[in-house]
Design a protein that fits this description.
Layout (H helix, E strand, L loop, with lengths): L16 H19 L8 H13 L5 H6 L2 H8 L2 H11 L3 E12 L11 E13 L4 E4 L11 H19 L1
Antiparallel strand pairs: 1-2, 2-3
């Protein structure tokens, strides 16, 4: 069954409401990208209709819908990489919401010198099968200034390394 989970903000975090609002928005965008059939969208109008259809089908809540601007989703889908994902979806090479479980030796995680396996589980947003490679896709809605891309690498690098190992 599909989850409608959206993070809630505990009372002690109310002063960080801007961050919380960002988490809600990020989760809503992620949900839309998870549910949309990229292969059936070829315009901004179709993007809006498809997102509205998710609400009508009760796959997306109205409150989530209000957080998502269809024009932002369309700009992504109409980008070179978005078109690449659309083509992969049409060809059956786009895989969304891929769960994984893997074991990593504790010593590789900096948890002592034990070879005992630590289980890691997660869900990759998507990956694309290409001729001789897999392309990992991880949606982020963080706002950064041009030239600050390294911040994202520092923030999410380890997560993406685990996803990469799981795909390999």
């Amino acid at each position: 069954e599909e989850s409608q989970w959206i993070p809630t903000v505990p009372g002690f975090m109310k002063e960080e409401e801007g961050e919380a609002r960002g988490a809600y928005r990020g989760t809503a965008y992620h949900r839309v990208l998870e549910l949309l059939d990229f292969s059936k969208i070829s315009s901004e109008k179709e993007t809006k209709e498809a997102i509205d259809g998710l609400v009508a089908d009760k796959r997306l809540t109205e409150s989530n819908r209000k957080l998502v601007h269809h024009s932002v989703i369309w700009r992504f889908l109409d980008s070179p990489f978005g078109r690449r994902m659309q083509k992969a979806a049409k060809d059956g090479r786009l895989h969304k919401e891929q769960q994984f479980v893997m074991g990593i030796p504790a010593e590789e995680m900096g948890l002592g010198d034990s070879k005992e396996l630590i289980l890691i589980q997660g869900i990759m947003d998507a990956y694309i099968e290409e001729e001789k490679e897999l392309i990992l896709v991880d949606y982020k809605t963080d706002y950064i200034e041009k030239g600050e891309e390294q911040l994202l690498v520092e923030r999410y690098g380890l997560q993406l390394e685990y996803y990469k190992k799981a795909l390999e």
